[in-house]
From TrEMBL:
This is Cysteine--tRNA ligase. InterPro entries: Cys-tRNA-ligase, Cys-tRNA-synt_Ia_DALR, Cys-tRNA/MSH_ligase, CysS_C, Rossmann-like_a/b/a_fold, tRNA-synt_1_cat_dom, tRNAsynth_Ia_anticodon-bd. Its EC number is 6.1.1.16. One of its GO terms (cellular component) is cytosol. Pfam families: CysS_C, DALR_2, tRNA-synt_1e. The gene is cysS. Belongs to the class-I aminoacyl-tRNA synthetase family. GO terms for biological process: cysteinyl-tRNA aminoacylation. ATP binds at residue 270.
Length: 455
RNA sequence: GGCGCGGUGGUAGAGUGGUUAUGCAGCGGAUUGCAAAUCCGUGAACAGCGGUUCGAAUCCGCUCCGCGCCUCCA
């Protein structure tokens, strides 16, 4: 089995053939930094982190680029609303984003370019587009002229007539064609702006990805990813800009899009009160549980995020960690993840199937705790980015840091219970166990003694 | 209106034209002072209607239902 990827461009699962087998390039659309990342923002981060881990085992070198959008009208609006300086907002939000994603065990990309640091590259690209006859300046704006690109619409599978028919937005007077989109727009005094051949202004939404991906990955690269909703218009417009500016037929060879999140069966929205930021969820659930939960469905499917689901993911991880603790004395061999597990991931990141392999490994390990199986289990888990932390920290930290008992009192009560058991005073022993249970502490007796964990 | 995706057992969620997904929950058993953890066993599904086929939950068509996108939302 080799890596196969569902390509939005062709609507088929295809064998992945990198342009250069020694160095795979991947670009994923990153956050606009104006507010905490919500749980839906976490899905692509986790999914492409798993892909990155997998690619690194398959290829010598992988370059993963994920941008930070720090110039955007939503940021401007936020600043106007709170009075906070724009730079302060973007710096603080980017930092929070990194912390939250780290808690989800998602590593940083190799390169994380910021839009504001690549204005010159964007202006350069826009000038090329004008020179090539694909863009025009009007009213302080620069617009991409969609009819100048006959192939426009290939990614999203739509044609111009459909779009005009379905258009529900007023068409600005300076547009030559209703489908034309903004590359550059003028900035009023109180809005961030940069000097340009078209006056003081700021870039449109799509141009940063075209400019920055070209700078770091070249005119054509392997994989471009992002949320399903970005297919149109964002990615469609990126393709138009890049192919016309670079005079190439292909921008990215493989387009991957993750499905959206629902919350408790409903669309996540602030008004419904089911809007969760990663930041607030991390206060009640370990990031690893959120990550594992997200991976329980294939990345292209819509995902219904529920609190019950998170709890189940957490207790499943408990099972794995409990087994690892029980056989703490077994030293894991340095082996690769088993082939069926790899094959599942290579099949368009079939993480649910991969997880079922993980369960099989767990069963084998419980039956026969040997170094080989433990090594395989940990190697497989590493690719998913789970089961890498200290077993005691996981089991004793749990999700209830606030349950109010400290470790020394727990140890003391376990000692008391041990005495009671030695005296065959089972009523007293059970009373202690019940008391601890009420505090969220579960005891596990074994021949080696008693261990505990938080629920 | 246009384009696209999906409907699998109590639940979450894979999958293949004919043979057990897997987890959770349930039921029975082993183990345990009793539990917990673990192990063994077990029931249960492929939205509906047609078609192709020796055979379809898996391919095709239609119907019903749900969802997404259609200019700045991952």
């Amino acid at each position: 089995m080799t890596l196969h990827i569902y390509n939005t461009l062709t609507r088929k699962k295809e064998e992945f053939k990198p342009i250069n087998p020694d160095c795979v390039g991947m670009y994923v659309c990153g956050p606009t930094v104006y507010d905490f990342a919500h749980i839906g923002n976490a899905r692509p981060v986790i999914v492409f982190d798993v892909l990155y881990r997998l690619l690194k085992t398959l290829y010598k070198d992988v370059t993963y680029v994920r941008n930070i959008t720090d110039v955007d009208d939503k940021i401007n609006a936020k600043s106007k609303e709170t009075g906070e300086d724009i730079r302060t907002i973007t710096e603080r939000t980017a930092k929070a984003f990194h912390e939250d994603m780290a808690a989800l065990n998602a590593g940083n990309p190799d390169i994380e370019p910021r839009a504001t640091e690549h204005i010159a590259e964007m202006i350069d690209m826009i000038e090329t587009l004008i020179a090539n006859g694909n863009a025009y300046a009007a009213d302080g704006h620069v617009l991409f002229h969609v009819p100048s690109m006959p192939e426009y619409g290939a990614l999203s599978g739509r044609n111009m007539d459909d779009m005009i028919a379905g258009a529900r937005v007023e068409v600005a007077s300076y547009k030559k064609d209703p489908a034309d989109f903004v590359l550059w727009k003028p900035s009023e005094e109180d809005v961030p702006g940069w000097e340009s051949p078209w006056g003081r202004g700021r870039p449109g939404w799509h141009i940063e990805c075209s400019a920055m991906s070209r700078k770091y990955l070249g005119n054509t690269f392997d994989i471009h990813g992002g949320g399903h909703d970005l297919i149109f218009p964002h990615h469609e417009n990126e393709i138009a800009q890049s192919c016309c500016a670079n005079k190439t037929e292909r921008f990215a060879n493989y387009w991957m899009h993750n499905g959206h999140l629902m919350v408790e069966g409903e669309k996540m929205s602030k008004s419904l009160g089911n809007f969760f930021t990663v930041h607030e969820l991390l206060e009640e659930v370990p990031g690893e549980a959120l990550r594992f939960y997200m991976l329980s469905a294939q990345y292209r499917s819509p995902f219904d995020f529920t609190k019950d689901g998170v709890r189940e993911a957490k207790s499943t991880l408990d099972r794995f960690y409990t087994a690892l603790r029980q056989h703490n004395d077994v030293v894991a061999s340095d082996v690769a993840a088993p082939q069926p597990f790899i094959a599942a991931l290579e099949d368009d990141l079939n993480t649910p199937l991969a997880i079922s392999q993980l369960h099989e490994l767990l069963g084998n390990f419980n039956k026969d705790p040997n170094p080989q199986t433990k090594g395989q289990l940990l190697a497989a888990a590493q690719l998913l980015g789970i089961l890498q932390q200290d077993v005691e920290v996981w089991l004793k930290g749990g999700s209830q840091e606030n349950s109010g008992v400290d470790e020394s009192s727990i140890e003391r009560m376990i000692e008391e219970r041990k005495q009671a058991k030695a005296n065959k005073d089972f009523a007293a022993a059970d009373r202690i166990r019940d008391e601890l249970d009420g505090l969220g502490i579960v005891l596990e007796d074994s021949a080696q003694g008693t261990t505990w964990k938080r629920k």
